[in-house]
Amino acid sequence: MPKTVAVLVLSFAFALIHAASGFAAPGPDSVHVRVTPDSSGAELPFLNCGVMGDLSATLLPEGLELMEKLAATTGRPLYRRLMCSLSSGTGFPSSTNVYQIGRDRRPIYDFTLFDQIFDRVVQSRMVPFVCLSFMPDSLSAAPPEGARRDWDYIDRYPPRDWKQWQELVRNVAAHCAERYGADKVTLWRWEVWNEPDLEFYWHASAQDYCRLYDHAAAGLRAALPGAKVGGCALAGPDSKAGAEFLETFVRHCLEGKNYASGGNGAPLDFITFHMKGGGSRKLGDFTSEALRGKLGYERRSPDLEGMLARTRATLDHLARIPGCRGIPVIISECDIDFGVSTSVYEDPNVEYRNSEYFPAFQCALAARMTALRDEMPDNPLEGLFMDTFFFPGRRPFEGQRTLLTAFGIEKPVLNALRVLGRLEGRRLNVSVEGSPDVTGLGAVASGNLLRLALVNFNPQTGADTARAVALELAAPGAHRLSMWRIDREHSNSYSLWQARGAALGPDRNLLAELHRRMGLEKAEPDRQVFSDGPVLHLSLNLPPHSVSLLELRPVK
Predict the structure, then answer these.
(1) Contact at 8 Å (CB) between 385 and 52?
(2) Is the Cβ–Cβ distance between 360 and 414 less than 8 Å?
(3) 126-153: pLDDT as tens digits
(4) Is residue 334 within a helix (H) or strand (E), and if so which, with residue range?
């Protein structure tokens, strides 16, 4: 039976029941949810704390606006993972062009494009998570073009001069410290390379990667002694080859001979790897609904359970490496699927990226990963980064894995980040009986402001089961209750666009309506609720693939 998740973000029609009234006996589709204080008094971990996406998009007005919107979703640090931070080029495709070799064979550093990109990230109040990649063309050890395969990109090779690679990283870090302040830049994170277990990204061995890492870390720490550095951003840490690569790297950092210093070990402040919930690829040319029906295609839904199982296996592997316990983990790409640029015209399955399914998945993922963090504390999960930003120059709702679509229209998944960003403060225990579809996250902020997130999520994209919930909260006295929801009818620009005819060129009135409706929407007007005992009882209904946010503010 498919696993279904509901992240405690309260939904739709509910009726207040006094604590003394008790619950009606749950029916076959009913769920009983109890919310109580966590005895540890610990803060709810903020796992959805980073976003990636094409570096080049940062240069566009829409990129800056989106980063500002993302930073506004939470009062805590939100990272922007910046891949291609050392790549040669003119900005499009992603690059900074920071390093070249002059006619006299001496290095030339030019930070013009680099500063244009990083200034905008800092201006937006996001925090750079610098992925030190890829190799500048003039520093690459790549063979001549005729001796390489078509997909052997020149920037995926090791450096031809390891000391120059180290000096490149040192100069970049020193420049950032001078421009933005060493105290601020020390709070950034620095990740060495991207997916070196894939030949597409790294045309060398695991030991060569360890050498790359050692010299990068040495250059970074020479400029910023307190800098936080980690790796190795593997694509498949749970595969046989990926697990071997991961163990080689971690053991090298803990006890191996350092290629830069000649001593033992290398700094390792965090470990990164990637997790995806399935794949998308071109299945055909589906430019109409009629062609979808006539051509047919393999139906596929994302695999949340598989992501959790693979993450559990990787954390278990890390915990068994001597000396590794205690090093935190950041999943620096943690996504509903791979194939970020695939559209609905190539794979109709990815329509779920446009709909209420995606925010429900994202909130369910956050809840389940938080539970996994509790279950496996040896290498605590510190972050789940989405490689989800936007692609300029595309039609509305093409289905790429993005937060924005054409005309600056926010997709429903951006509202999931708004929900998760509000869950701040002392964590609450949320227990669920009656359905695997429902799970929850909750926190109490200053002033005893209680927030809960409820999600009704079924991995099958076509699932249509609503859940009746009997909710029990440790919230005595009077409270003002506010409730936001993401579902088919609320906080959903895609369903509104469909209902208005799915025009590729929306007129001014429709665009205005879409922009008014694309943020978080209330499920119903605020109201006052009351319990004359220690427990407040509410009953509510969770629509299919829904996320709701419940906020209880004490009334004096």
Answers:
(1) yes
(2) no
(3) 999 999 999 999 999 999 877 778 778 9
(4) strand 329-335
